[in-house]
Hints:
mainly beta, oxidoreductase activity, Immunoglobulin-like, copper, GPI-anchor, Cu-oxidase-like_N, disordered N terminus, 5-stranded mixed beta sheet, signal
Amino acid sequence: MASLNFLVVFLVHICLFASFSSAEDPNIYHQFEVSYITASPLGVPQQVIAINGKFPGPTINVTTNNNVIVNVRNKLDENLLITWAGIQQRRSSWQDGVPGTNCPIPPKWNWTYNFQVKDQIGSFFYFPSLNLQRASGGFGGFIINNRAIIPIPFATPDGDITILIGDWYTRNHTALRKALDAGKDLGIPDGVLINGKGPYQYNNTLVPDGIDYETFEVKPGKTYRLRVHNVGVSTTLNFRIQNHNLLLAESEGSYTVQQNYTSLDIHVGQSFSFLVTMDQNASSDYYIVASARFVNETHWKKVTGVAILHYTNSKGKAAGPLPEAPNDEFDKTYSMNQARSIRWNVSASGARPNPQGSFRYGSINVTDVYVLKNKPPVVINGRRRTTLSGISFVNPSTPIRLADEFKVKNVYKLDFPTRPLTGAPRLETSVINGTYRGFIEIILQNNDTKMQSYHVNGYAFFVVGMDYGDWTENSRGTYNKWDGIARSTIQVYPGAWTAILISLDNVGVWNIRAENLDSWYLGQETYIKVVNPEATNKTELPLPDNALFCGALSKMQKPEDISSATSITINELKLFFTLLMIICTLIPIFY
């Protein structure tokens, strides 16, 4: 009888947990089988990374505070991690999917991500984070919808369309990796893909026959939300739709002041939401264009993606020249002024009922200042490398967060400099020491000749300023302290700086990186470590039960920990929770 009582009490506790998880914060399940397939997006057969046999992968569509459970089966021939760009992983850098926090998923193994999209809304994407794999695909959209009780600051759109744009090479990521390892540049991309497809044949010379292109069918008079993500390798793309205005409404989880643009520069890793009304006469289809920016257009003409906007009452195919990109080859301020015009909608509610602007970032005292300077690639120990502030980051074999958890010494140094080094550049695993609940100012200084964009995991930061030249203390006089956009990826123009502010309220180890894949691969990244000295589960979740181990902790990994899980499917997980809830219902009746 005692054992029966114990079993009942145990089940009651499980039922209480399950009912809370299911009723309060629903679980959303996905099964990702990541594998190679052969595709020819630019007319040349090549190996691409697919998810469930599809390229690009499926769009994850959830609601604020949902629990997202993604079982990833690695069928590649190399290690794999999936990261969720812009998803803040509140209290759980364990789920972040980058080498500083996670051991990789080996080939033929699977691992289940389990995280909550806590207090977030907006447009994001996911991708494989290791060794240039994103250059071969493996990416997809990630939508977080508002809860029903929180109104969106515009009329409900008639449709929702995800658009993934990016420069593309017909060489796969392993070939690109070999080029970088040999000290070479990647060279001019072979084209631009839109949702994994090549360009519509707008020009017989530039676009060969037989290219499969993307078509978006729309109804006249309707308004659609277009979520556009630059998932490419290293090229800023100008996005535009022939004869249609782009009403900017949201970017990476923040509602913006709504402004019309005829085109917008979208930098590598960035995401934007536009409201587009189908208000044209449909005399023909319309071009959707994503073309390379800040390059010699004579040599880069082929680096243009073209899709088709097709009204249901269209009278013919799109024809004629493409809509022109901004003509600012000799006016470097045009794009920056456009970027400065993107403002936070301080009166709109985001994931919570209170207005976004109720967090008055401009009145908070800064506790730490870091200047992260990028320079052209350098040679360190005979290898071509990229640096931030004179340090080229070396990923440790034991992830930083795991090393802390198990007190493994000499894995990294908590000594990233607040100002750029003055001596010779060096290879280091050097990490920023963040102050929990501090307010950090980071200046991203780009002294290279190429556009760069940078991403911060775990946070949305406030973009308070950008300008050409070198940042100085006096530059703070130009800061926007009221409605600077909060986002997770920001561009830094060549020979310019961008300043961001971050409220360090999310405990964990968080990646700061160049989004340009070549710069990232060659060492342009670091991590920021944020520790609550009280070490409570209220500010950081414990190590997950299914954590992988590697490096100095490899002996802790048991093969059966993974192989035993490979037979569990998403449907079986759903069935388990269903049966559990039935048991929970029957306990009060029979006991």
